Amino acid sequence: MKSTALSRDLPSPDMEAMNRLISALQDQAFTLAYYVLSDEDKAEMAAQEGIQQVWREFRRKRAPRVSKFEPSGRAQILAAVLRVCARTKTRRDGAPRQGTVSSAEGLHAGLVSLAFEERAVLVLVDVLKLDYAEAAAVIGRRAQAVRKSLAQARQHLCEAIRTHTE
């Protein structure tokens, strides 16, 4: 089942729907954190911490006086993971190496050379396949800003790959 369909289950505080949503998004949360941080251990911790923050918020809002969680559970989970990533020191090891560099190494070097927001937008749209509106909800910006950041990210990534593979 798609995560967007699951997030529609959330308007009434439903623990089962939240559990299904978290289960469906664990891989996406890790993928986002890994591409942004370039470190598997840090990515795992960031994904777990972000999911836990959303879970705690969900439990807190579950009180009878609160009738809704949030309109997009997927966006909220990915935004929490991204906030944790922003607090985590990122590894910047995109310096060119001596000798020949494979295209995979060039891609990795290009990704880590991107600015944090560019890297995040690139992963959200091109890897996780979020539309501009949902990516905008995750990073807390307008869809137009997402389009602009994505275009810049793609341009910078192409330039970095060219530089590292030449």
What does this 3D model show about the protein?
The chain is an all-alpha fold and 166 residues long. The chain is built from 8 helices and no strands. The radius of gyration is 17 Å and the shape is globular. The chain starts with a helix and ends with a helix. The model is unreliable at 6-12, 63-71 and 90-101 (pLDDT under 50).
Summarize the model shown:
The protein folds into two domains: 1-91, Orthogonal Bundle (Rna Polymerase Sigma Factor, Chain: A); 93-166, Winged helix-like DNA-binding domain superfamily/Winged helix DNA-binding domain (Arc Repressor Mutant, subunit A, Orthogonal Bundle). It has eight helices and no strands.
Offer a few descriptive terms.
166 residues, mainly alpha, Rna Polymerase Sigma Factor, Chain: A, Arc Repressor Mutant, subunit A, 2 domains, 0% strand, globular
List the helices and strands and how they pair.
Layout: H1 3-7, H2 15-37, H3 40-61, H4 73-87, H5 103-113, H6 116-127, H7 132-139, H8 143-165
Helix pairs in contact: 2-3, 2-4, 2-6, 3-4, 4-7, 5-8, 6-8, 7-8
